[in-house]
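Entry 12.
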Amino acid sequence: MTWEELAQLPEEIARNIELWDGRVVWLRRGPAEHQEFTNLMWSGLRRCAREAMAKNPAECRRVHTETNVFFGAHGKSDFVTPDFLVQRCLPEPYQDLRAADVQLVGEVLSPGNSQTDIDAKRRRYAAAGIPWYWEVKLEREKSAIAVVHAYALETRPGELPAGVRPLHPANYLLVAEWSPKDTDGIVIDYPFPIRIPWAELEF
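Predicted 3D structure (tokens):
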């Protein structure tokens, strides 16, 4: 399917579709907790981004939820829709968001999410060169965050035997994790200083 064909579909159908190199991927809407924790992450990251910009106005960023990220410099038939993201400010409003302008993408993972789908989407973000990828895993038995994982993009694989090449040249490495059970909140300095106490992320 092309972007133009997608645009001909009713909005209630089109908004549940991603195009992966023109292939239709159906987005299953999660439970209410999924949307709530997506919005809470957006709120916390937005506050931190604004605080960072107040100290350094040249580092302009915007934080969004469920916004299409288009791969490649042109065309719109290859995109994903992360749950939340941080982008560099664009020179004009209402522009398509390209992966090259995205600093961080994140997914809120409900208990029903498929590990195969999670891994596939993570690989697409890495291949697009997005520097940071976060996963917010929810508890199974209650409406709460279990753990948040932060991954940084690695583009140079470690030493491999002669003649062996990585299946995916770019990959994410886990660099931080936070759980309400053993931390006070999310604390990291990349891609900008982020401090989000768990009290801001309660359902």
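Annotation: The domain at 31-201 is CATH 3.90.1570 (tt1808, chain A). The CA atoms of residues 39 and 65 lie 7 Å apart.
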